[in-house]
Amino acid sequence: LLGGMSRFVKRGARVALLPNVQSSHPGTFTKPGIVRAVVRMCKEAGAAEVDCLSMQAQKAWDDTGLAAVLREEGAGLKLVARDEANFQPVPVPGGRALTEARILKDFYAHDVFINMPVTKDHAGNRFTGTMKNLMGLNSPVSNRTFHRPNWKTDPADIEHLDQSIVDLNKALTPTLNIVDAAEFIISNGPFGPGELFKPRKVVAGTDRVAVD
Predict the structure, then answer these.
(1) Rounded-to-integer distance, Cα 53 and Cα 49, Å
(2) Helix (H, G, I), strand (E, B), or coil: what is residue 116?
(3) What is the value of pTM for the model shown?
(4) How many CB atoms lie within 10 A of CB 9?
(5) The pLDDT value given to residue 180
(6) What would the 3-class secondary structure string for 70-85 be?
(7) Model confidence pLDDT, tens digit, residues 20-60
(8) Region 124-141: what's the mean pLDDT?
(9) CB 94 within 8 A of CB 170
(10) Rounded to an integer, what distance in angstroms lies between the CA atom of residue 133 and that of residue 50?
């Protein structure tokens, strides 16, 4: 319906994928089957390389089953240490809460960026989607400034979190967003366990606001 993966991935392209692997509880991570399908579609379109980029530990990828999928499909898993030397400063034009992002340097070695969140509940702003998922490329030190002391309860602190996410999205533009909305938690997010909702859908598009 979007025109096929070849609209986004050209022959010889290096593709970076960003699934969510925050937790291994059901409905809290991007499903292996969806990641497998996207890797295959990228390769069929002629991608020279498909990599998942992550600051999460190897255990997170093993526990969710995503590491096995990447091995089976011949995709790379690039785990980056949470060292500020591994992040590149990027100005945020018109940023209100965030004036500078710090993005994984490995990200810039790729031609195509496919953002692959699972949509789910969040303890602060109640929603994780395409826009919030980009925190997976921003340094932990920078991400910590998103969370003021009462980010779960104080409306002003929640608004600051929301604005920080908006500002981060001014520094990064995914080529494509593919959202796991097959099964996700609607309580106790983002780590769970929580109540599961099962729409059995995948939502995809280029406009993050529309997709979210």
Answers:
(1) 12
(2) strand
(3) 0.97
(4) 26
(5) 98
(6) HHHHCCEEEECCCCHH
(7) 999 999 999 999 999 999 999 999 999 999 999 999 999 99
(8) 96
(9) yes
(10) 19
